[in-house]
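Quick one: FAD-binding oxidoreductase from Luteibacter rhizovicinus DSM 16549, structure tokens please.
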Amino acid sequence: MTDPRLSELARLLPELKLSTDPGDLEHHGRDWTRRWTPAPLAITYPASIEEVQGIVRWANGVGVGVVPSGGRTGLSGGAVAAHGEIVVSLDRMNRVLDFDPIDRILTVQPGIALEAVHNVARERGLLYPVDFAARGSCQIGGNIATNAGGIRVIRYGNTRQWIAGLKVVTGTGELLDLNRGLVKNASGYDLRHLVIGSEGTLGIVVEASLNLTSPPPPSQVMLLAVPAMDSLMRVFAEARHRLTLSAFEFFTDRALHHVLAHGAQRPFEETHPFYVVTEFDAADEKAEAAALSFFELCLNEGWVVDGAISSSEAQAAALWRLREGITESLAPHKPYKNDVSVRISAVPAFMAEMQELLSAEYPHFDVVWFGHIGDGNLHINVLKPADLDNAVFVEQCEHVTSLLVDTLHRHGGSISAEHGIGLVKKPWLSSVRSEAEIALMRGIKAVWDPNGIMNPGKLL
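--- reply ---
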């Protein structure tokens, strides 16, 4: 450890675990974007709130940027450390701290994995309902930083809805205890909600109190083959009318192609342009009859041409794998990703324009799209040809993103639905936020982080 700044940090916090190992620097200095070369000064692994405060105060004194690091499963460059920042890995702060059965509040450290939270809630007969494919590796702190959504937003909402309280270390090293689990608290600005979705630019979440809820009744999963894009919203409207939905997801034939190549089982003999995976309550015979009636109606109307329904947990998992396995199956192809949203009512018109744009601009690229159609969130993945230079590929994709942003703007949409702005989408923030809003956001950051050390360069 030759850098005198790190020697000073080690002197101030003698118990702090600190690494400058090249493998650690590379691993913790990047996220799933893989577009920036990791170059952090060092990786710190605090085990307590006091150590996090000490790191932030030291960083202020020496003028080093601080990059909070969770599971680094983000897709917007929000956890990248490429300019000599100190990375604060929260891997060691991964414990359950408390459970209150009366309030149904589970208090955890930020480094706990989402799947571990699910398991703890289940052991207590309850549910933490935020869920997505990266549950085994993403961390609660990162979920809060991006207000993560996932596959059950249609029923349960985003992470924001489930945060009862937060402890946060600000950019000056001050510890804030926000809301303290209160259901009602009309005492001024709710700073908790400023932190949720702030991408680590205001401070570091060091403790989170999570609301749990009763588990839903037994459910079933249905996979539907849809012959045309304009049928998707008709199927959704009918499903929402007839069934109690937990999820309504769709993907294209190209997405299915890659998931099958990655080891999933083919659901139907024939290939179809679009597929829907929907999960719904099936607690009794009446609910099951409603599901069958829904399917028959869609079949008779020609909105659906084939279908399968789960009759066991194993079958439900196999059907879900067709949707949840998409991101992992695409990873080897180094995709350029767009994560966009529009109001649900605007989805049909936006999708029609989007498909026309992508077909025109990407005639020789494999474009894979899928999404949470029940909440207006679409994921667009452009796969890089193996023989194309990465910089040229990104430049072409960013040109198309600018055109896509114009389409989104006409439909009142957002360039980022659930992965944040980070570095990737920063050029297009003004398409979603007005100049006045951005000015206020800068002002808020200046108060929380006057020296600009918290996740510098991200979002703003």
